[in-house]
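Input for the complex:
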Amino acid sequence: MGFRISVDTGGTFTDIVVMDESGRQTIGKALTTKERIFRGMSEAIEVAARELGLTMKGLLDQTDLLIYGTTRATNAIVTRNVAKTAFLTTMGFPDTLVLKEGGKVNPHDFTQDYPEPYIPRRYTFEIEERMSAEGTASVPFNEAQARSVLEVLKARGFEAVAVCFLWSIANPDHELRMGELINEMLPGVPFTLSHKLVPIVREYRRASATAIDASLKPLMQDHLRGLEADLRATGYRNDILVSTSVGGVMLVDELVDAPIHTAKSGPAMAPVAALTYSTIENLGDNVIVCDTGGTTFDVGLVRDGRLTYSRDTWLGGQWTGHLLGISSVDVRSIGAGGGSIAWIDEGGLMRVGPQSAGADPGPACYGRGGTQPTVSDAACVLGYFDPAFFLGGRMTLDTEAARRAIGTVAERIGRPIEETAWNILNLATELMIKAIQEITIAEGVNPRESTIVAGGGAAGINILPIAQELGCERLVLPKVASALSASGMQFADIVKEETASLVTTSDRFNLEGVNRVLSTLERKLKEFLATLGPRAQAAHRIEFLTEARYLAQVWELETPLEFSRFATEADVEGLVESFHKVHERVFAMRDEGSPVECVNWKARLIVKLAPEVTGEAGPAITALAAPTPSTTRSCYFGGTTPVPTPIYKSGDLKPGYKIVGPAIVEEPTTTLVVFPQTSTTVSGVGNYVFGIG
Amino acid sequence: MDRVQASSAIDPVITAVIANRIDGVVREMTNTLLRAARSAVINSARDFSCAIVTGDNQLLACAEGLPIHIFGVHNQARAMTEFHADLAEGDAFLHNDPYSGNTHPADHCFLVPVFFEGEHLFTAAAKAHQADIGNSIPTTYHAAAKDVYEEGSLIFPAVRIQRNFETVEDVVRMCRSRIRVAGQWYGDFLAGIGAARVAERRLKELCAKYGKDTIKTFMRDWLDYSEQRMIHGIAKLPKAKLVNTGRHDPFEPLLPEGIPLKVELDIDPQAATITVDLRDNIDNIDCGFNESEACTVSSVMAGIFNSLDPEIPRNSGSFRRVKLLMREGAVVGKPRFPHSCSVATTNVADRLVNCTGAAFAQLGDGYGLAEGGVGMGVAFSVVSGKDHRYGDSPYVNQLIIANNGGPASARADGWLTYGLPVVGGLMYRDSVEIDELKHPMEFKHMRLIPGSGGAGRFRGAPGCDIAFGPKEHPVTVIYPCDGQHFAPKGVRGGADGTCAEGWHVSANGLETKLPNVTQIEVKKGELIRGLDASGAGYGDPLKRDPRRVLHDVLEKWETVTRAQAVYGVVFKGSLDDETLAVDVTATTSLRAARAAEATTA
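Predicted:
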């Protein structure tokens, strides 16, 4: 086996990680080139190749697998820069995408217009048909009327079509016939049928997913095919896979068919990386992953070695944006990061964010004209950054500008600048703690029993106090923290899900029907598996799950099945018990008397690609005393007097070294603050591991 | 640079930190209740609110609580402390008595006193609308109830439901003997207590971390801070005395003229106070439309908050700057026993929110807002019957699938999924598929009505046209609709919204108009059809940005005819080939001519 290359194309930077056979990872970074992704990507590959003493061609020649992740789809959705898409819906129900599911952030805020639907109302067309909840045709499909609508679509030059009929999940005949007509009358125009893409009950969710998917098709097909062609032009002959929203990787062909699965392409990989590093460091398989960027703080979870999933992923803000509708890795984002702006409100309270200085002009300390006091400026004032050697020397910082910016806040609350900076950092930390608590609470996870894995360029500034406050005793900052998602792709499996809706309750369980559904799901996955070749056959497993709830609840919980078919009533009881356990974990109560209602059935194929990671036998924590630091600097840790603080460059450190705070470690792409009364150890593979408490 | 008045008094950092934590606790309660509850009215529609009250019974935090639920929770906590001298850790109470602080009997409020180091520091409150409460008819909104006896609900004036963390099964048995679909109620009961207990746990952790003294200082500071925000908000308003009136629809035969309302506001920016006088209103009426004190206050506060900076925290601190003058025995004010407050959270309350918020528009351009869509009509009805799919088992639930267009403000068009003035868009709407899965019924159509939003410089949001019918057995449909006679009113030259309506549609398609308060059995093959009310407009429609009018026409919010007739905007090009554009010259002259007409008229 040769190299594996993973690529994470973000809005600003393209991160690449090259892993060799021994598992050593090399990072390459370059600015993202939006007009042609391959340019920035090849630049980043060249950076890494140089570090390995290779040319890009030489590196690609020895590469077995390339994995690609991108924010292309997300950006297209949020900016609505997508194909001209028609939405075909059941006659009488044109406003599903407009009305959504209700909900609003502030009941007293009348300053905002109601958000535009994902597909304009003028691109919505009603088709005469109606299925009932039981799957019978209340109104038969009117083929003549459907054809006349398609004529209009043709005349008006629609580039994609989304079809979502009520209860198509109970009986897909009408949607299927609509698909045939589109093929016949609009040959070559891509379309998506809701029951195929996301067969779940609740028309808005299904319609939203369908609309998003169809609208992405022309664009993502061009994008992925173009990238593939560019890579092939370099002479690269081996596999190309794309990372997906379920935290796995998938063939380009599959994603060309259902591009919505690339919507969380990058962020979904952070939990995969987190699980890997926690495992390598022998820190268990319950993990909280935190990714701190310039404007957002993303949190995800791994529970008992499993990624956590959600169907409640909104792009562009809860309620005001668009619901992804598909099951995707649950990564939640808040507007808090290095660029978040501190301010004092009318009542005299200190606030941080949600406004951000963004990448441009960025924090005041970047010296690009920013004057607003940001979290990064606070860190700069506290002495945590080397102004002359920020980001490995790629940038110099303007400390005076940072002090001036923080000074505006300090003056308003009548406190010294350093104390104010410390407070700003603490308040940002609080917001991040709340974001972590919200997701751990929603999933019934106890942070005290979890390991935090931190990533993102700005993570090292305050991840330690975050972990302390949550009572997490274990924390890892991987050496590749600044390219966490790209690194995660190196360890991702091929993951494919098939879902079907069949509503049944435990007290009158439709055993045969459910088994039929499970067989169908399994068959579909097996057919796909057969296309992957014999190596995949040997390394696959299929998990079965149901989305269930107590009768009359409406929000389902994902419950794993411990078997692939229901043999007897005893298996139904087994499922009921599994559900009670899940419910108790999440809501701290179980209702023994209530029947359990299963709504959706899911099968998940997992094909292992990367070698199994195992715990490293790292050196003992006290093996090596602190080395001599490169230098010292005055830093502030809450008091008004500076503390002389040792500064370590990554070159100063070797596995086994223990660094006792206060200290600062400067890696080329991230800075790690070791606060007083804490310490960190460099692990056997070069990660920073903290024992807290 | 602004002088920060409160900075000398409060710690700007620790107050922010603990406030953030408290907010997190309320959100956790909300999440628990939303996801664990059984009835659609809670878990689909989100008709519930969570709050934290201080040990001395002041409302501290309510996160995303519904406007109508917010005020009064602390009065319920006060009732709890007054009725129970032996208050102890491990207690929980059920309160739904509109005469000692609750909104209306259908809102079951679960109260858990939180003790730390032996002291009662907080009360955690989770209030949720129940699907059924044992009324004499299968609805939680009994419009016709002459008094509380006819209403028939079980009343719990802060009744102990847990002692030592153990449930008092007597109460559960009482409820099971009187409440329809008792299993559903019990699931919600568990979820409600669960939410309050979650808060208890978190608040104790918070106290352990910061210490009792810091927490007590925080409570004082946070309320002072909130008051400070309110002072800033009121100080920006012009000094004025405002009078506004409104009217709830007739209720035959009792109230042929409807229910008139009058709100008098005295805004004093120097003193930073708003005095609201509601005493000049009619006496209590012999039906379910009376306001409880909690609903009266919440509605007035909602109207005021709608007209101020939306960031001002809603708690006893900000409420200090509002003085409310109420009369006992008035339809809005303090009810006199045994008048029924069965429908207190919506109808008259909605009108009161509208009336108060719209009053602020009298202050001048840029202030206040228009009236929002009102009425719990067909798309908000309570449906009940037997489900043929499950061995004819009974069902009862409220549909929450209406949108009722939101009001225009001085800065934005109306919010489409506004719901009602008392919820301000917070509630979720049902899914058609979920409603059809849970009830043996099918929807015929559900579509927004073009051109129905009240015109204005900013326009109200349109309403929806909806119809449904049963699949097998008849369905009983009950709703106490308002807004069928008196439309939501526009302000500062903005047009009124449209009225709600309802019809019974026979098997052969014959439509018969229904009264605004309806109880009807709809048989298989028949339909019930209704229109939501729309929101009213703000400002002169002739001053609406022509680009907004164009967008409205392209997106079918408005019609080409109305664009010209009402907004004075002339188009060129065609809608069908997507070339429609504003004819600027023609529009300018048409608008000028219209303005001249208006002046001469």
